[in-house]
């Protein structure tokens, strides 16, 4: 995995990386942050025309998918400006020119590997890809040899998508008295790739926690949690769950690095702009190339296991969270609703969560 994880950093820095398959290779760059110079670099170092790989969600959104669940590869015309490439990945309506759409095809395994690296970087999920053939050009071979361009085996890159190498490890901890629960301890967990960090907030005295243990899995929301954004209910749920756990004898809040349902803050802000133009929260994410919810809960499960918790009362309205824990063998003995406040800015967001993601929010929405 090591090379693939390093590749994620290079992609975020705007550097191309090389992915090697058994017979051929591709140079990859992210669409986010793309410059004419970078497009030219791929062209000079590669030996095929540059293509754009988009996810199955984006392909379906624009109607170019000829296969129900295929990520697609588009041949880019020579000299296409960066803004038009970005449009191919983000435009609200399908504006894909017919000459590009008609020749779209499902991605090859190497293109799929390229998308996996870009997706793991949490940038816009779209990759520029140029074939490098079985024998590399001299200049490319030299750049790979001296380490300027990272070479990643395709199977490693693909594995980024299928099985996150988790193994969270407890890294540090300290007492942090909270306004809503004076007796609290923060325990930081770090994923094996060294990037993502999640926090377990232990509320009250673990020795006297009730059984089942009250547990909240809370996905990070910078706007709501820290600034009290009215676009969502996250801030209220966060403070409300700390209070509720403290009042019921203590338990755990897992603060998970899953900003924007796992798409990252940059993409969440992009999605907000689309919502301001009329889309709902699910369509906005899908039009940018994401699924309705990109979160995974393996890290949360590992954290609970590390803390020795196997039976919980889960504070959530989200059926996916209940399912994820149950499937991992954690007994969700009870589910407790956790309602924020409805306001004119979050009403549509909450209605969409209920209607399209099956969240249990009837009680709250009835008040609307
Ligand atoms: N992509 C996207 N993410 C959003 C939007 N609004 C809020 N979020 C994110 O949605 C997530 C909400 O997290 P939680 O409150 O833990 O989960 P939930 O799915 O609402 O389920 P509950 O347990 O019932 O609260 C956070 O990661 C937010 O950053 C939005 O419009 N688009
Ligand atoms: Zn939020």
UniProtKB/TrEMBL annotation:
Cofactor(s) essential for the protein: Zn(2+)
InterPro entries with a match to the protein in the record: GTP_cyclohydro_II, RibA, RibA-like_sf
EC number(s) from the headed UniProt entry: 3.5.4.25
One annotated Gene Ontology cellular component of this protein: cytosol
Keyword check for Glycoprotein: no
Entry's Gene Ontology molecular function annotations: GTP binding; GTP cyclohydrolase II activity; zinc ion binding
Record keywords, A-Z: GTP-binding, Hydrolase, Metal-binding, Nucleotide-binding, Riboflavin biosynthesis, Zinc
Binding site for Zn(2+): 221, 232, 234
Gene Ontology annotations of biological process type: riboflavin biosynthetic process
Co-factor note (free text): Binds 1 zinc ion per subunit.
Pathway: Cofactor biosynthesis; riboflavin biosynthesis; 5-amino-6-(D-ribitylamino)uracil from GTP: step 1/4
Membrane-spanning ranges: none
List of catalytic residues: 293, 295
Residue sites binding GTP per the record: 216-220, 237, 259-261, 281, 316, 321
Function: Catalyzes the conversion of GTP to 2,5-diamino-6-ribosylamino-4(3H)-pyrimidinone 5'-phosphate (DARP), formate and pyrophosphate.
Membership in a protein family: In the N-terminal section; belongs to the DHBP synthase family. Belongs to the GTP cyclohydrolase II family.
Protein name: GTP cyclohydrolase-2
Species of provenance: Natronocella acetinitrilica
